[in-house]
Design goal:
Helix content is about 10%, strand content about 45%. By secondary structure, it is mainly beta. It has a 22-stranded antiparallel barrel. It has a five-stranded mixed sheet with strand order 15-20-21-18-19. The two termini are about 60 Å apart.
């Protein structure tokens, strides 16, 4: 017997060798740079620069030093007059000499520690005060300076007020200073933070000083397309969040960690299954483009990053995204991973979190008494009689006798407190010449059904080294192995869906085991396939499903800074090469099983049912991507001018071979199959490539007037020659009116201290069409036929008519916005309004009809169009009171799409034209009836003037739905239907509220997230009682029903839902007509994240060699306020049979060594 390996060995060997070669290069690079970590010289002595400036601001000279060297300046703008103009003309001088010259005859002093330079003012009231050397009266003060997150602040300035005594903190935030006496006041200051004064006698406070952020002084750099720009000079609608906010989430996927945190980002967590992420769009425009460390990736790769390794996430929402060209018309999400810092000590961080999951909301099911009551009523309503006897009915209502006790299938199937854990260990640091970040993490998540689990292993390695002055080499390597495992059920469905379905399908009068014996799964008739005992029971021999990905990505970057050449100062050249390889192995083996019936009289178990359908599927596919980029950046500031510009050329290539085998094994046990058992063999291959050339110039004058111009020339393989290349420009402008003198001098300038007005317009191209539509020819393997000579003939069929004119989908995006700061930037916010138009959406000319004998359709043209209109806003307040610091923020966004152009739609009737013509209509919603309550009595039905059921109301019962006769013709017909509801996809309205606070080592982080203006329309299991002859949701116990189910003349008892039987007989179509009775336009607000933490004082932890140790409790999806009480508001399965999101409670710790 010949066995077949189902994974092509040659493919695996080829890429394995490539991987080994790549790892050899990486290890060599790592070893070389490890030695350089310890090759630290005295930077202040070895660094020399040349400068030639005439009457320029001191701030411009400092910026030039930062550009030419690795030095960073720290100073308080209130103390240092950086607008003062000076002249300097030096050649090859050390930095200290330059600082001495520009600050001569001033009261500015400086302190240098490695590459940190702190400037501070000498405001001595008494220049002749006794020096610090007066040992008889001075006291020694030591301590640590940290930010509100507990992180040490490097280079913070500590000075004795009214003296010349001063020092700065070291790389661990520690300081030591001699104060004249205990009444001396120590002044703590640092750029970006609010200064603080503490008396020298208050040793407890001085041992650990916390500085609060001063947003007015912060000058953060934001990652945008292919470069970085200071936040104050950003011209586009851009939002970003940092690692701290991401790490407050316990989600296993990055998309889920973003929910509710960024204005303009719409999300929906439709599933809580192991390893499931959230659906995400920017402004409801469609799937965004994901860029990770400068490389284009898909959502799967973004989703499976470990949030620990992410430094920041930036979202480009307007024309700022156009620089990325193809596929950027839906917005761009940029990810920057951590990379370490030059000249910092090595840090080792360990974090661990253990959590336990439970469903947020899953419909409760009827017990046996409720279900039997409903079935008797249903029989009587439909047939006027029932097979159930009064005696049986009474026994089930009592539920005490053996054989008449209710069984809770939901409790049997759904796990309680399913575990989820995350572990990460990372190290970072840097020397004069090298910086690094190394990380390893493990994520495990068990499913809520005792049949599935998800695991993921991530590695991240980012290293950069300066080989010679100006020349840097960097290598980023990340990889992961992720695996989803589950049982394989005996139906061709989602193997997790079957467990949700089993909760509805299994009757509470039936049990999973014959005679409750776990060795014998019970034969419950036609519902045997949903008896989950055959998959998870004690005697189960379930099939299995394994879906495994192995991914490795390597980026190598070479950059050279030309600042050492005076004429080329500010110019940097970069070359980047990226290699990505992933393979996916999928195996699903479906086994047969036996079901049993127990005979009480003979005490025997008989095999009476089961499944004999054995199936197996194996598939393998791999993805290989190559990307090359060359780039020139020019960043320069002089006088009142600032320029940030670049030009880029890049090309990508992607290959994707696939292989699959379907078979029918003869045995449950053998892991391999024979070729004679094959039922299908598949093999495929695809290859894509793209190229682009682009450039951008950002120009700033006097830090008030900003203009940014960019253009991109893209080529795509999908179009015919002559249509493959497109040019897509953009223009962005901003006016920092808050920097104008008249504004600062005005009364309102003290309230609105910062104001920036922005506008942008850009054009983008999208090649989201099928490839090679411009080719004619034939499609092979179009069916097989046996001809007269009994030979099999393979069929060929003509392709569509070639689409030789099809080209880019063209997108134009207009955005206006404002950024502001109030009350010294304690309150900051932004508001944006946008319009996106798309033209050239592919469609066929349906007014040209071809005979069916032709065998193909008309070609595709760029014919249709649509428009998105919306807005988003954010607001944040930062405050502090003594040792308490806090932050309250919120964001909200709205976006909706309208179809603007449809090519000559054809309709058979005027009604169809009215209902189905989408031109100039908002997308979303559907046609249905408007309900007007329910009938409350038979008398009301008899006197009702409107024909509600089309049969003179003969089939109506009390509790049935009343529909509005909107055209007033006395009948309920299709003419009474109207557009109701919203989209069933992502919400049109999204919002989030965050509250963060810290006090003396304690911290709390809270995120409320919500959405509105989207619909949930109930169908089948959550619309009809007992569908599929199984159990029913417990909510249907609250229905109109007879007081005595056996007596059709007994009184009606009111309820929320119509009576049973109305939908099942076929006599009454009133029950499940499309209407707003079953529709919920959802609005919800949920406590998405809650984290309570405590950082143990350093004087305690340092005894164990730990710099920082924090413990915390966290919760996810703990509380939800919504207007739908049957399912979780985020699920998108109409019948409710799904895997809802989970709530999670966790405990964990973070330790730094």
């Amino acid at each position: 017997m010949k066995k077949l390996r189902l994974i092509p060995v040659f493919t695996k060997q080829k890429h394995f060798l490539q991987f080994i070669l790549f790892m050899k290069l990486f290890i060599t690079f790592l070893l070389l740079n490890t030695f350089s970590l310890y090759a630290i010289d005295t930077y202040s002595q070895s660094t020399r620069v040349s400068m030639h400036f005439n009457k320029v601001k001191i701030s411009e000279i400092l910026n030039d030093i930062e550009t030419k060297t690795d030095y960073l300046f720290f100073y308080n703008h209130k103390d240092i007059k950086s607008d003062t103009k000076v002249s300097i003309n030096v050649e090859n001088k050390p930095i200290s000499a330059i600082l001495d010259e520009i600050f001569q005859n001033t009261d500015v002093k400086y302190s240098m520690l490695n590459n940190h330079i702190v400037l501070f003012a000498d405001n001595s009231a008494d220049k002749n005060m006794k020096s610090q050397s007066s040992e008889q009266t001075s006291i020694r003060v030591t301590g640590t300076v940290r930010d509100t997150n507990g992180e040490p602040l490097v280079g913070a300035n500590i000075s004795i007020k009214d003296t010349t005594i001063g020092t700065i903190t070291d790389i661990d935030g520690n300081y030591s200073i001699n104060a004249p006496n205990e009444q001396s006041v120590l002044l703590f200051s640092m750029i970006g933070f609010i200064s603080q004064e503490i008396k020298a006698g208050d040793r407890k406070k001085l041992s650990s000083v916390t500085l609060q952020e001063d947003l007015q002084l912060l000058d953060e750099v934001v990652v945008v397309g292919y470069t970085t720009i200071k936040a104050k000079r950003v011209t586009g609608a851009i939002s970003d969040i940092r690692n701290k906010e991401l790490m407050q989430s316990t989600a296993t996927k990055t998309t889920s960690a973003l929910m509710g945190k960024i204005a303009g980002v719409a999300t929906r967590q439709a599933s809580g299954g192991p390893g499931a992420g959230a659906n995400i769009e920017i402004r409801n425009l469609g799937t965004p483009l994901f860029i990770i460390d400068g490389i284009q990736k898909d959502q799967g790769q973004f989703d499976n990053l470990d949030p620990t390794d992410i430094e920041s996430v930036t979202v480009l929402k307007d024309a700022s995204a156009s620089i990325y060209g193809i596929q950027a018309s839906n917005g761009v999400i940029l990810v920057t991973t951590k990379s370490g810092t030059y000249k910092t000590s090595n840090a080792l961080n360990i974090s661990f979190r253990q959590g336990w999951q439970n469903f947020t909301q899953f419909p409760e099911m009827m017990n046996a008494a409720q279900w039997v009551d409903m079935r008797v009523e249903q029989d009587m309503n439909l047939y006027g009689q029932t097979s159930w006897t009064r005696e049986e009915y009474d026994k089930w209502q009592a539920g005490t006798e053996p054989g008449y006790q209710s069984f809770d299938w939901k409790k049997f199937i759904v796990r309680k407190n399913a575990p989820q854990s995350h572990f990460n260990i990372n190290s970072s640091g840097g020397s004069e010449k090298t910086k690094y970040y190394l990380s390893f993490s493990i994520t495990n998540q068990d499913g809520m059904f005792d049949s599935s689990d998800f695991s993921r292993y991530n590695i991240q390695s980012n290293i950069e080294s300066e080989i010679v002055k100006g020349l840097k080499v960097g290598m980023n390597i990340n990889g992961r192995i992720e695996q989803f495992k589950s049982v394989a059920t005996t139906v061709d469905r989602d193997d997790q869906y079957i467990f949700s379905e089993a909760i509805f399908r299994n009757r509470p009068t039936e049990r999973p085991y014959a005679n409750d014996n776990p060795l014998y799964p019970a034969d419950n008739g036609s519902r045997g396939y949903v008896n989950t005992a055959v998959y998870t029971g004690a005697n189960a021999n379930p099939g299995h499903l394994t879906d495994k990905w192995r991914i490795i990505q390597g980026n190598m970057k070479l950059s050279y800074d030309f600042s050492s050449i005076k004429a080329l100062s500010g110019l940097t050249a970069t070359a980047l090469a990226s290699y990505y390889y992933a393979d996916n192995t999928y195996e699903r083996q479906q086994k047969d099983f036996k079901l049993y019936t127990y005979d009480k009289t003979t005490d025997t178990y008989t095999h009476t049912g089961g499944s004999y359908d054995k199936k197996k599927k194996n598939s393998f596919n791999s993805v290989e991507e190559l990307m090359f980029r060359v780039q020139l950046n020019y960043i320069r500031e002089f006088n009142k001018h600032a320029i940030n510009a670049f030009v880029v050329g890049e090309a990508t290539e992607r290959k994707n071979p696939t292989f699959s085998v379907d078979s029918k094994p003869t045995s449950n046990s053998l892991p391999l199959v024979r070729s004679s058992e094959f039922t299908n063999l598949g093999n495929g291959y695809s290859e894509t490539s793209r190229a682009g050339f682009l450039g951008m110039v950002n120009y700033v004058f006097d830090d008030k007037y900003i203009i940014e111009v960019s253009g991109r020339y893209d080529g795509s393989y999908k179009f015919a020659k002559g249509n493959r290349w497109g040019f897509f420009p953009s223009v962005l402008m901003a006016y920092r009116i808050g920097n104008e003198k008249f504004w600062k001098d005005a009364a309102w300038g003290k309230t609105i201290n910062d104001l920036k007005i922005r506008a942008s317009y850009g054009k983008m191209g999208d090649d989201n069409v099928d490839a090679f539509l411009f080719f004619d020819g034939y499609n092979a393997y179009n069916g097989s036929y046996v001809m007269e000579d009994n030979k099999v003939t393979i069929g060929f069929a003509p392709r569509k008519m070639p689409s030789t004119t099809l080209s880019w989908i063209k997108t134009s995006l207009f955005n206006v916005g404002v950024d502001f700061g109030l009350f010294n930037s304690k309150i900051t916010g932004s508001f944006d309004y946008f319009v996106r138009n798309r033209d050239g959406l592919p469609a066929s000319k349906n007014d040209i009809v071809l005979p069916s004998e032709v065998g193909f359709d008309m070609p595709m043209y760029n014919l249709n169009g649509d428009k998105n209109i919306g807005w988003d806003a954010s607001l944040k307040y930062n405050g502090s009171y003594k040792d308490l610091s806090y932050q309250i923020g919120g964001n909200v966004s709205f976006s909706r799409r309208k179809t603007t152009k449809v090519y000559n739609p054809i309709f058979s009737t005027s009604l169809n034209y009215y209902r189905d013509n989408t031109a100039n209509r908002w997308e979303g919603g559907f046609w249905g009836y408007e309900s007007a309550g329910q009938f409350t009595s038979q008398e009301q039905i008899n006197n009702w003037k409107i024909d509600n059921d089309g049969k003179g109301n003969r089939t109506m019962r009390p509790g049935d739905i009343i529909y509005k006769d909107l055209n007033n013709d006395g009948r309920i017909t299709d003419l009474d239907m109207r557009k109701i509801g919203y989209s069933g996809g992502l919400p049109l309205l999204n919002y989030g509220i965050s509250i963060n606070a810290s006090w003396k080592g304690f911290d709390i982080n809270m995120l409320w997230q919500g959405a509105g203006k989207y619909q949930y329309y109930r169908e089948w299991e959550v619309q009809k009682p007992a569908p599929g002859d199984g159990n029913s949701a417990a909510m249907f116990a609250d229905r109109w029903h007879r007081e005595d189910p056996f007596d059709p003349n007994s009184a009606w008892i009111p309820g929320k839902y119509p009576s049973t039987g109305s939908w099942a007989s076929g006599q009454n179509n009133n029950y499940d007509r499309a209407s707003d009775f079953w529709l919920t336009n959802i609005v919800y607000l949920r406590l998405k994240e809650l984290e309570l933490g405590y950082t143990i004082p350093q004087q305690i932890t340092q005894k164990a060699g730990i710099k920082r140790f924090r413990v915390y409790f966290s919760g996810t999806n703990l509380i939800t306020f919504d207007n739908i009480d049957i399912v979780d508001p985020e699920i998108d399965i109409a019948n409710g049979v799904t895997y809802p999101p989970t709530k999670l409670v966790s405990i964990g710790f973070n330790a730094t060594f």
